Please model this.
Amino acid sequence: MIKCNVTVCGTVSRQAQMRANKEGTQFASFGINIVIPAKSGINKTVEISVAKTCNNLSELPPIQVGTRIEVAGILMFHKKGEALYLNLSATGINTFNAGNNDGINGTMEFRGTLGKQIEDKTTKSGKSFTVFSAYSSEKDGDNYTYTWVRFMQFYKRKEAWMQPKAGINAKGDLELGVYNNRLDLTCRISECSLWEKSSNSYQH
Model:
């Protein structure tokens, strides 16, 4: 599970349309393009699919393709094959004071499995921090897909339970970048704990 409470600023890429889910709840659906800065190579434009519960489009600000827009809500990441999809359930939409700079700012909640490398490091000023990666898995047909996140925990050495394949609950600041044309997810941890994985969990 990767769940992020964010504010997104970008450009409308798909016109808003009314749709309904399986329960019959009405919502507006549209797309936002965000340029993510590259850590290596060139910047990457990603599209976020936005859904906002409403009865009709007149309840929302005008959402036209090419308009600058700021949207607050819950961002979820879903992987199918090698493609990573970004879906935003909106709680607020603002087209009047949206800034000129693209960005995704907010916090991440993560539940998943630790990878093999969990490293203690020290800053130039002598402060301790831990670096590791973990993945969240989800079912894709008969198979599983895995979304990896890189974590940094400052001013703290790794705890005894932080071992490869251990379950982890983590919260912290979300950072997005691009590395070799792939979206790179990073979280600066504010708190984390052992997750006791259950036998019927999708996590491996």
About this structure: Residues 199-204 have pLDDT under 50 and may be disordered. The two ends are 13 Å apart (CA to CA). DSSP finds no helices and eleven strands in the chain. Residues 5 and 94 are 16 Å apart (CA to CA).
